[in-house]
Amino acid sequence: SLASKTLINSMLRDPSQIPDGVLANQVYQCTVNDCCYGPLVDCIKHAIGHEHEVLLREMLLEKNLSFIAEDQLRAKGYDKTPDFILEVPVAVEGHIIHWIESKASFGDESSHQAYLQDQFWSYWNRFGPGLVIYWYGFIEELDCHRERGILLKDCFPTDIVTLRHSMA
């Protein structure tokens, strides 16, 4: 039932709630030593993710691209937001880009499909076409939505074309 699932999750998060002391200690040891999903790994993943967002912010500032960051968008009441929305769209490899999402991971098929479903298509619906940077590379075949408006790169694009100058 839902109640027992909630209780179990609560005990896994805080093993001191487990009445059996030996079991509580064993669960705690497992959690601490979990090299894939443990709290330490979560902290590391979060820190690396944040580091790459800061890097991307610096690159955008360096290129004089004006943007609205995720925290500013959340303050305005948006729930699902990319890391950066460009105030003036740019072109990358002939594709218009309105937003950029930073992923400090490798883009494999299962995680990319999940991101498309949970994040990228909703960004696309709300803000138009965008760019996803998988800093640790991605499977090339996954970059198959360019014409529809989701571009994949493994680094900050070097060939950004700003639109404001060409309007003159």
UniProtKB/TrEMBL annotation:
Main subcellular location: cytoplasm
Pfam families assigned to the protein according to its UniProt record, in alphabetical order: TPD
A GO-annotated cellular component: nucleus
Compartment(s) of residence: Cytoplasm; Nucleus
The entry's keywords: Cytoplasm, Nucleus
GO BP annotation list: erythrocyte differentiation
InterPro entries: CDIN1
Name of the protein in its database record: CDAN1-interacting nuclease 1
Organism ancestry: Eukaryota, Metazoa, Chordata, Craniata, Vertebrata
